[in-house]
Design a protein that fits this description.
The structure is a homodimer. By secondary structure, the first copy, chain A, is mainly alpha-helical. The first copy, chain A, has a domain at about 55-165: Glutaredoxin. The first copy, chain A, contains 5 helices and 3 strands. The first copy, chain A, has helices spanning about 1-20, 55-65, 75-90, 90-100, 155-165; strands at about 65-70, 100-105, 125. Chain A has a 3-stranded mixed β-sheet with strand order 2-1-3, sandwiched between helices. The longest helix of chain A has 20 residues, at about 1-20. Chain A is globular. Chain A starts with a helix and ends in an 8-residue tail after the last helix. At the A-B interface, helix 2 of A face helix 2 of B. Chains A, B: Its main location: endoplasmic reticulum. Chains A, B: One of its GO terms (cellular component) is extracellular region. Chains A, B: It comes from Sinocyclocheilus anshuiensis. Chains A, B: Keywords: Endoplasmic reticulum, Secreted, Signal.
């Protein structure tokens, strides 16, 4: 019985050795298969997102739809909870899909008009098809005018509806 | 026999009618479930892509890696064949993954340095971590200096290696 046990453990060691020897170091680097990055970044996989601000402005003008720009960071907890509320809100998702050009960014643009009261995340700015940033459409926080929290979805929805009433540009 | 045939065709018409009647117009709109858009757009799903030029420049400077910018269009056949060759070339994918910051764009940026001889697709530009566009790194076509074709992958690889030899910025 003892011999059998010893034999088994020797066998186990051999199996372990051969399996680690059979694994060529070079062909199995640390990196596993990556999941392709999405443009939505979890803010609504079924929506069609612009990639860049230039592209979003082009679409906004040519489709005559307001633009919604979401600034966020992947590892910011406030961004994460807002993202979850935004992605799960069917009314917001539907309106965004049908009536808006949408863009989410994890880096600031060079356009200072998109940070009327500073660069922070999360913040949401609307841009009129006339290419005017709607600094008048704000959330409920005086120190961060364009910030929203997960329980502000009703306000965000009504702000989206405000953004759909275009500015009359005077000639 | 004729009656049976007529009965069958009446039945078929009824089945067709009822199935088209049973399809409520409102709950089955034309749009089916969309596939989330990826940042790679098929140029290498396993690579990590920057979203915008600003982001790519930031990464290039902070990681001290050259930037490769690919301009293309989804429905341009030359872009499609180049994309296939690029995505399938293991040497290019590996070098791009390890040594480059990469960005693919379907819209032009506002930076004119990225179109030294005009805006056309497909074209590939390299940018030094010092934020200088490497207009000296060109393909083999005199009328479109930054264009590549599927059988230019060796040249593209050697151009990538050239881009890895950084410019010495004079002080």
């Amino acid at each position: 019985m003892k011999m059998l046990k010893e034999l088994l453990s020797v066998l186990l060691v051999l199996v372990t050795l051969s399996s680690s020897m059979g694994k060529p170091e070079k062909t199995t680097p640390k990196k596993e298969k990556r999941i392709p990055q999405t443009l939505s970044r979890g803010w609504g996989d079924q929506l069609i997102w612009a990639q860049t601000y230039e592209e979003a402005l082009f679409w906004s003008r040519s489709k005559n739809k307001p633009l919604m720009v979401i600034f966020h960071l992947e590892d910011c907890p406030h961004s994460q909870t807002l993202k979850k509320a935004f992605a799960e809100d069917k009314d917001i998702q539907k309106l965004a899909d049908e009536e808006f050009v949408i863009l989410n960014l994890v880096y600031e643009t060079t356009d200072k008009h998109l940070s009327p009261d500073g660069q922070y995340v999360p913040r949401i700015l609307f841009v009129d098809p006339s290419m005017t940033v709607r600094a008048d459409i704000t959330g409920r926080y005086a120190n961060r005018l364009y910030a929203y929290e997960p329980n502000d979805m009703k306000l965000l929805l009504s702000n989206m509806q405000r953004a759909m009433k275009f500015l009359k540009t005077e000639l």
